[in-house]
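Lecture notes, continued. The same structure-token format from the folding unit now serves as the input rather than the output. Read the line below as a description of shape only.
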């Protein structure tokens, strides 16, 4: 891809991630406080596989920061989300590159480590070690959510590669 095409595509992906994030913040699909399916992570996984770790990290971190700015909300939940996003993208990058795992497995690992990152940040920021007991509840939701995100991402990339003659998958 040319630089302009890459920049345009990444900008659109970032915009899509922000929109998905904002929409999901308005919906209370899951009755567990703080739990989400993580639809914005679709974009993270897709960018990781369409481009590379560096670009996926950039889109992910920018999404978290821009949504924080949009809501003027740099509270504990923002820092927990940022921590989760960082843990998630690093884990997915490692799982994809070093272990060459399937996209669905990479997505599930990303979901798991997103929760681990959130809990670690929460324990540090709130100085409350008991938050670790919340992790099993979060994992109970995040593993199927990560599976769903991985399946949807995989399907997207299959359709994309077929329609745009991309052979890098």
């Amino acid at each position: 891809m040319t630089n302009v095409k890459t920049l345009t595509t990444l900008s659109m992906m970032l915009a899509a991630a922000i929109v998905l994030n904002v929409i999901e913040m308005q919906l209370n699909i899951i009755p567990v406080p703080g739990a989400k399916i993580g639809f914005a992570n679709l974009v993270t996984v897709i960018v990781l596989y369409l481009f590379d770790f560096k670009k996926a990290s950039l889109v992910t971190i920018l999404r978290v920061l821009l949504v924080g700015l949009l809501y003027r909300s740099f509270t504990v939940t923002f820092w927990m989300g940022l921590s989760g996003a960082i843990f998630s993208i690093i884990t997915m990058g490692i799982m994809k590159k070093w272990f060459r795992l399937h996209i669905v497995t990479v997505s599930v690992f990303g979901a798991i480590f997103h929760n681990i990152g959130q809990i670690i940040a929460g324990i540090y920021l709130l100085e409350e070690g008991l938050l670790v007991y919340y992790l099993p509840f979060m994992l109970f939701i995040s593993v199927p959510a990560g599976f769903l995100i991985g399946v949807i991402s995989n399907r997207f990339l299959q359709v994309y590669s077929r329609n745009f003659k991309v052979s890098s998958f």
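Point for the exam: The chain has a mean pLDDT of 93.
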